[in-house]
Amino acid sequence: MKMLKKVMGCICLAGLSAVPAACSMNNYDSDMKQTIEQSVPWGDVGKQQDTVSDTSGAGDGRMIYDNTALYENRDPASVVTMYLTVSEGNASDNTDHTWTQVNSYSAYHYDELGIERYAVNGLLQVGDENGPVEGQLGYGQVVPNATVTIRGQTSTRYAQKNYRITIRDNKGIWDDQKVINLNKHEQDQSRFANKLCYDLMSELPGMIAMRTRFVHLYVKDMTEGGSGEFKDYGLYTQVEQLNKRALRSHGLDKNGQLYKINFFEFYRYEDVIMVKNDADYDVDAFEDLIEIKDNDDHSKLIAMLDELNDYSIPITQIMDRWFCRENMFSWMAFHILMGNVDTQSRNVFLYSPLNSDTFYFISWDNDGAFYDTKAKLRSQDRGWEIGISNYWGNVLFRRVLMDNELRAGLDDKIEEYRNIITREKLEKMIDIYAPVVRKYAYSYPDSEHMPLTGGQYEAFIKALPDEVENNYRLYKLSLESPQPFFIGIPQVTDEGMYFAWDASYDFQAQDIYYTLELAKDYTFEKPVLRVEGLFATEYLYEGELEPGQYFMRMTAKNESGIEQRAFDYYVASGNQVIHGVKCFFVMPDGSVQEDVYEE
After folding, report:
1. What domains, with CATH codes, occur in the chain?
2. pLDDT per residue as tens digits for the range 47-90
């Protein structure tokens, strides 16, 4: 969540001049304005446009629209029952493993060894609580029709795994999908945030959603050591995989570029982001930042990044060549209001039609939504992870936010969505999802892994409808606040210990003053050093620091008295995040070593 580029001087606050916008937020043809009437249990919302994707002409910034017919006649409270029989396959398919092996290792194990994730054969059958149903996928079959692996990254460390079930060619299809993603959302106390968000997106103007369903999964393990009996694996949410098939289903260009952002702040990264025929091209290093989905012609991406990182080119010009304002502002506004903070530099797809220069944002992984309510449940300080400050570490969003015209466009979209995603609407949706979750979450096996008691769960979901208004208030505060900044690693000099940090930024151009604190523990109850009212972004401490562990806290304050913490953070025991703090060690030889936290 807090993986940010920590390089001193990486934030360039160059003045950006505006140019006349080439793509207004309403720049679409009148024939795109048809709407499909939808009947949903929680009532009308801002109606989505019909299935239209105008990609004629390179870089014209045309808006894309979802295929709303995909979401018609879908009961949000329905639960699909799936029966999965797993068996050992063969080495050439990497399915010669046991179910125990598949569930024993995290993604980090495979990354460390440089091997593919273990897989097994699977026979997926769809039915009801009485068993597979005639006419549904897998009915009457006895041989495998799918391959099964664990899915996710951090979630692979949890006891309950998420699964990816890939239906083999010529072996059938389910709900127009060949890849079935089943998610436990173990870190989402509600267990329905991802589904709720996608269901909301399916109705919001400007958003591209994915189809989701609740799934009750039974697994029969026929591999070595398995019981050979169906076991209840509890409740999952299924989410459509964004791939070529999904692009086509949603009315988009299946031949276009599609990238999944793993961790990427839109810096150029010339040593990694390069065309595939470059002698130094390393696809693994590339995909550490951006995962490539099929089309590996990166020339368009590189051209966009070259211009974006050229501060002589006005950001409005870059926006109107390479992005669509309506799409970007819709995506940002939604996640700001829903509190899905884990979207600063990951958990999103970049999509660009083949014959267009425009890149579009498509949401992925929304179980981090309702972060404000979750933070209060954990008594966790949110630090800089509010409003627009949450996106300040990303060069694309930072440049956009520094432009008055573009910032006003985002503000308009936030006001629009705020009037749609009301407290009453969220209450209605939660009243549909919560009974489904309760039925399974407090029954075996899910009850063994539920972090909240029944009473705590009721109090938690009761607070969720206030999320949007709370995040709206924090968004407004972030507009008045100094923006977060990075702390440099202290340097030993002949004169003493040299401390430095990046400059903060204030939208009202107010003067910013800094407070530097140094202590031997992160409570700062007994500071070694405290200096207030610093206008410069550096300080020389002429005293001597004895060897040991130190914590440096930086706070920026503008003339209005509003404070902001640094990007840096320290993770204490129990995964408690201490915002605005850099931890370092003074070694016995007097040198300084930064304490680096790896997620």
Report:
1. 1-65+271-290+297-439+467-480 (no CATH), 79-183+209-240 (no CATH), 491-594 (2.60.40)
2. 444 433 343 333 344 899 999 999 999 999 999 999 999 999 99
